[in-house]
Amino acid sequence: MLCSVLLVLNCQSLKNTQKSTPPTHPEIQREFRAAWVATVDNINWPSSPGLPVTVQQEEALEILDLLADNNFNAVIFQVRPQADALYESELEPWSYYLTGEQGESPFPYYDPLEFWIDEAHKRALELHVWLNPYRAHHPKGGIVSDNSLVNTKSHLVVELKNGYWWFDPSMKETQDHGIDVVMDIVKRYDIDGVHFDDYFYPYPSYNNDEDFPDDKSWNEYVENGGDLSRGDWRRNSVNQFIENIYTSIKKEKPFVKFGLSPFGIWRPGHPSSIQGFDQYDILYADAKLWLNEGWIDYFSPQLYWPVNQVEQSFPVLLGWWNEQNYKNRHVWPGVSIGRFQGEKQADEVLNNIMITRGMNPEAPGLVHWSVAPLIGNVSLQTELKTKPYREKAVVPSLSWLKQKTPESPDVEYDFSEESVAVSINKAEAEISNWIVYYKYDDTWSERILNRKRKQLILPYTIEVQSESVDSLNAPQISLLQEIQVTYIDRFGFESKASIRNLDK
Fold it and tell me: Which residues pair with 137 in a beta bridge?
């Protein structure tokens, strides 16, 4: 039955209303994709101590470009390898690994951490500072200089048998100094995260398999009425430090993430099929407790073993750690991409990624140890970029810290004859990235832009290769129909969209 004139008008009105109601833009992919960049022993950067500043910066840019080009979104950069600093610090000396002489600043002067932060953010990469909380000197860290903390805070450190010096974790001044170092960075630098790895009390091999030499502090504890066992006393010292680091960061800048990457096994037999090193009883690291209590924002146990290695199986261990995640923090396992070569390497890494996505679908992610196996490895880069990392992704949000959805951004559109320039008016300090979703005909695409990027230009028309047989694969013209703009705040939450429909 045909519509009356009135009904036709009403039908047309309904169609117009439906057309003007914007469709929801495609949901942006969420995944943490990070790589460690180690400076201790010049493992990853700089390639040797004392390089010219220009060479140091060139090497840094090559690493950051590599990560950005392969759709990573975070870099975990070691800034304190041995109670020293790859940044301007009044608390600890300049690093030997940077200049070849501990305490000597770069010449011509620059601040490496500031450089890494700026360049990472230009590439839409988060920058997490990685610190070793207790290592005071590494045997490959040059001489123990006069301004080394081994000398300036000698009452806090002990000498181990194999060339290491180590802070005594049980001493309050050790904990206070460690917190001061972390908070100095948090306050002065525009970082996205703070990161500790698996070094708490030292591995036994560092001291010829002898016990940690803390008789002095232990005897003082006992004489003062302490009633914990020696193991519990050591663990309690580390526990207090971890909790205080987390609360201190959250009080100062709650959006700065605190991540931990402990040894991948808590204790043998947890779960029952797992065997291996006992970090709880040997490193005095109760990593399970830290995750249970939520004293971290993300947890990256070093699951460096193959998927099918029964006694240290990657999926079995990941599943067990997930069960310990009582506070629903992010579990982003660390994986070793350098233990295999060729096809086996790519296969294992892709399995790690897909297993993690399947087991942690709400907020997947991985940390790759380290960036080195990616450098110059075209086949592995291709496997990652054409398969699991084909599309760019945004780091998952800190959902337990802040729930309110940010308001839509103030967007400016500058129209010319052939294109429209899109820009966002938002203070850089308030956002992590901004996203432009755009639709040509019926096809949506998006661009993730770093907060320093001021503008994106979109042409009104693009050529699209037709799939029609009749067209003989001749390109067709596709028209820009709609633009939606959002931003990601520092907590990782996406704002409401600012929407612009185009009539061209």
Answer: 165
- Residues 459-466, mean pLDDT to the nearest whole number: 88
Q: Which residues of 15-31 are buried (b: 16+ CB within 10 A; e: fewer)?
A: eeeeeeeeeebeebebb
What pLDDT shows up at residue 194? 99
Contacts of 246 (CB under 8 A, 6+ apart): 258, 295, 296
Residue 165's CATH number: 3.20.20.80
State residue 3 phi and psi, 5-degree precision: -70, 145
Residues 454 and 340 in one domain: no
Q: Give per-residue pLDDT as tens, 430-458.
A: 899 999 999 999 999 999 999 888 899 99
Residue 4 has pLDDT above 50, yes or no: no
**DSSP calls for 488-502:** EETTSPBPPPEEEE-
Instruction: For residue 483, give its domain range.
Output: 402-501
Residue 363 lies in a domain: yes
> What's the half-sphere exposure (Cβ side, CA atoms, 13 Å) at 325?
22
Please state, in angstroms and rounded to a whole number, the distance separating the CA atoms of residues 118 and 113: 9
Give me the pLDDT at residue 21, please.
42
Contact at 8 Å (CB) between 406 and 496? yes
